[in-house]
């Protein structure tokens, strides 16, 4: 049985950990990102999803892999996270964020769904902010709310095809993106971990195990799964 994981943003963090986990289960890995993934055996397609025509130079490579696979897991992992508010978010910047976080996933859906056989899966990477909001990241919040809607639409539109989907919403995960946003201030880290019932950041491998489970189990079709160690709500 030929199994393929096609993921976006696999060069670091959760995406990189996913590539290793699925490879260990016998999957061929295709990574779509600006930077190459540091993992032997991965098919690396260097792309910039912020450009509307990013697919043009890799359509043949992607379809060649997917068309011959018995199972395709499509993982929409790449994301852009800006610091902005509804008071200063320009239309241009908002469109750029939506291109990466929502439009690019749908471009991949449009290309790959006709090639995906029963037993395949489409997984969306959401966020704790897919269903709530904080100040200072308006475009990210709006786009991640949209990811939940796109996943739910996927569920309804693929009825009868044997392709299942889910949106996995990590909490505070120990990734380069998170640390880049919060910096090295111990007080900020303490404040963040203080909002988690377990008092720590999530290891990327914990999210990976959730993603792998979802990829193999169609019973979760249409589900939004919050994987956050139990956030403390004020």
From TrEMBL:
InterPro entries: SDR_fam (IPR002347). Transmembrane segments: none annotated. The keyword Oxidoreductase applies. Pfam families: adh_short_C2. Keywords: Oxidoreductase. Belongs to the short-chain dehydrogenases/reductases (SDR) family. This is SDR family oxidoreductase.
